[in-house]
Amino acid sequence: MRNEAVVRPVAVYARISADRSGEGLGVARQVEDCMRLVAERGWVVFDTYVDNDISAFTGGRERPEFSRMIADIEAGRVGAVVVYHQDRLTRRPGEFERFVEVCQRHGVDQLVTVTSDISFGNDNGMLVARITAAVAANESARKRARILRKVEQNVAAGKPNGGAARPFGYEDDKVTVRETEAQIIRTVADRFIQGEPLRSLVAWLNEEGIPTSGRADTWRTTTLRTLLMAGRIAGLRDHHGEVAGEAAWDPIISREVRERILAVFASRKRAGRRAPQRYLLSGLLRCGKCEGRLFSAARKTPAGGVERRYVCQSGPDHGGCGKLTVSAVPVESWITEAALYRLDTPEVAVALEGRGVTDARHADAVAALGAAQRRLTDVAEMFAAGDISKAEYLAARPIAEAKAAEAGRVLESLATRDTLDSLVGQGTLIRDRWDTYSLDRQHAIVRAILPSATIAPGTRGRGNFDPDRVQPHWAA
Question: Which residues does the UniProt record annotate as the domain Resolvase/invertase-type recombinase catalytic (predicted)?
Answer without folding.
Answer: 9-158
